Batch of 2 targets.
Target 1
Amino acid sequence: MAMTATSVRASALRRLRQQLGPWINRAVATVGQPTTRVYPAGYVGTVQRPIVELERELRDGPFTWDPLSMYHYTREGNDTDGSWAFRSSWLGDRQLHVVLFATGSESTEVYAHDEFNWLRHPTKHAREVDIRREAGSAEMRRWLDEQGIEYDRDSLPVRKVKHATERLRDRLAAAADPTRLQMLSILAEAPGGEVCACDFVGPVERSQPTVSHHLKVLTEAGLVEGERRGRWIWYRLAADGIDGVLRSLDAAVR
């Protein structure tokens, strides 16, 4: 994406925000016990847009950049890239605080919560009195819907779990066939860990076309890998087979 004057300015503001954030957290900690981690209840969704584009929408709407708010972190340790607030008036009683995390060059995670306006109630704000995460995230979703901005409700950890679960399901389904299960067993016990496609025919008592079909299913499921050597393809168990999926699933839920 070409660097425009707007994106350069936005990047500069985010760098300023990143420098101010930790200092603000330490200052607020002298008044209360601030929570600097975002919570699932405050998750709005993931917008498939660069953070610069989403911030432009916020700026053109009723939101103002809020560099002096608390500096937040995700469960994975990512630090905030943008902080915005909506107030019905400058000294309104409460505010909608929106926190943005750039999860890639083309996607932005959005969190929000309803809280006391720090301009009017600095002490209540610092002590996190009456934080309303569900209400704040719901209000932000309504605003995104009104603007026609699409978003994915599943957070990054949930998407990782779903993806790993789908991969596991597909691989288990591929391995569930008796013939394919037998072929996986042959590969697991093969000297050197490799078997020529031609050598499955006898043990599984199937024709070569049928064997080739089963090997194709196992390959597409990510359970085996093949390497052509002359006329035949030699197969081995995939390094990132079912065990790899289980490791991904375990990492996603930690």
Target 2
Amino acid sequence: MMNKKGVSQVVTTLIILLVVIVAVGIVAAVIYNMTSKGEEQLEGSMDCFNVQLGIDSAVLNGANYDVIVSRGADNNPEAITEVKLIFGNSTHTGTVTKTVSVNSLGKQVVPVTVVSLTEVSAPTSVKVSAVIGDQTCNPVGERTID
């Protein structure tokens, strides 16, 4: 006759070992997912960190706000293809996205029509955010509108 207690202990050990292997696999998959997403976010943040963008002047010129956006000598080879201009007054802000090309050490006049500012009337200041790829950088260079 066969010893059934010995077989039962072997089966129990194999089941516990299988559960441990599955649990380790699940934990490894979650950690790998978290670290790979963090790496992508870090690369996008570094692009924004290296860009030196600012506003030289902002003037109401008839029906347009002429905003001169300048870029410093940064180490980012990525071209800025869009900027977001954030206009504001004491109570409201409004954002306008413009397609522009601002290279290192370059300047660009960005005209914004008064009519396109639907969220804010009579803005008193403007800030600029660079758009690099699909990453929007933090706004910088607040300037009072003349």
